[in-house]
Every structure is written in structure tokens, then in C-alpha cells.
Amino acid sequence: MRQFAFMAALYAQALRAFNPSLPPQDALRYASATIHEADAQALDARLLVALIAVESSWRRDAVSDAGARGLGQLMPATADELGVDPDDALANIHGAAVHLHGLLQHYASAGRSAQYADAIAAYNAGEGAVDRYGGIPPYAETRDYVRRVIGLWRRLAGAPSARAAPGASAASAAAFAAR
Predict the structure, then answer these.
(1) Per-residue pLDDT at 1
(2) CA distance linking residue 11 with residue 131, whole number of Å
């Protein structure tokens, strides 16, 4: 229990680096939910943090031009399919985790590296586009999205990258994600 509380506090700090206006108590609730939902879906919680950071910068009221809503930017049809309220932050985190897990399962035969890239691309552009092109579609937005999510995930996991020094802080990772 103490280890979970410690991890949740660390994740909450990272969420506040992405969204400095996020109240500390909300950051802790979202961090705890993210760790729980990632564990329930057999996901790396840092991947879920990265995906949501790129989607909404951890702003629960984010709405895209296409109509995607909330932290994980769930489209209304996807939220309905998942049975979640996209405007409820904790339900949105649950929906994002379940949706990402489903996409990873869908692309499991692609090989580990392609599996993650294709699933992340499908989260952005839809399964139909990824299936139609046999991988990441040639859309600049989607290619940039995949690069940003994977790059941020690597930095949150402590992996060096071309754009961040080894051991880069969550704050510097958050600044990169905002670019």
C-alpha cells in the first residue's frame, strides 16, 4: 500500500508537469486511476500517461474539433461502445485504457514494435485507416502523434532519445509533448 501511494504521488507530479493548473488532489486521483487501470489492462502505466498527455495535456475538459472529449479524447461512439461517460475524468481514463488494450490485442500479430506503433496510430486515426494502409497511415498528424506518444513514453520510462537527455525530468518530457 505504501509503495502504491508513493508511485501515485510520483505520477501525480508528472501529471501536474503536463498540466500545471491541475489541482493536486485531482492529479493524485487521476494518477491513482491511471496506475490502477493500466494494471487492470496489462498496460505500462507510463504509456497511458504519455498517450493522455499527448491527447489532452491532462485537461479533463479538452474537446477536439472532431468531437473527441476528455482526458483520453474519446470519440462519442467509442465512449458509447465502451460504456463510459467521456466527461467523467475517471471513466475516461478507464475507457482510454480499455480502448488502448483492445487496439494492442488487435495488432498483436504485427510484432512487438509494430504492435505498439499501429495501436497508437489506430487510437489517433482509427483502426480502419491503420488496417487499410497495413500500418501507420501516411497522415502527417498521425505520424507525428505516434512519434510524440512513443517518444514521451520512452522518456517517462527513462530511455534516452534524440530529443531528451537520459534521465530527463517529467517536466522536460511534458514540455516536449506540448511542442
Answers:
(1) 75
(2) 34
Nearest CA-CA partner of 120 in 98, 136, 132? 136
Displacement of CA 19 from its chain's centroid (Å): 14
Model pLDDT, residue 37? 98
Identify the pLDDT of residue 159: 85
The pTM of this model reads 0.88
Q: Which residues of the chain have pLDDT under 70?
A: 161-179
Q: Which residue has the cell 494494471?
A: 39
How large is the angle between the packed helices 24-40 and 89-106, nearest 10 degrees? 30
CA–CA separation, 91 vs 85, rounded Å? 6
**Inter-axis angle of helices 170-177 and 45-56, to 10 degrees?**
40
Per-residue confidence (pLDDT) for residue 169, from 0 to 100 = 39
Contact 40, 95 (CB under 8 A): no
Q: How many domains does the chain have?
A: 1
Catalogue the active-site residues.
55
Question: Domain range for residue 102?
Answer: 2-177
CA proximity to 92, closest of 59, 124, 65: 59
pLDDT tens digits for range 94-107: 999 999 999 999 99
Taking the C-alpha atoms of residue 122 and residue 133, their distance in angstroms, rounded to an integer, is 11
Instruction: Read off the CATH number of the domain in which 39 is found.
Output: 1.10.530.10
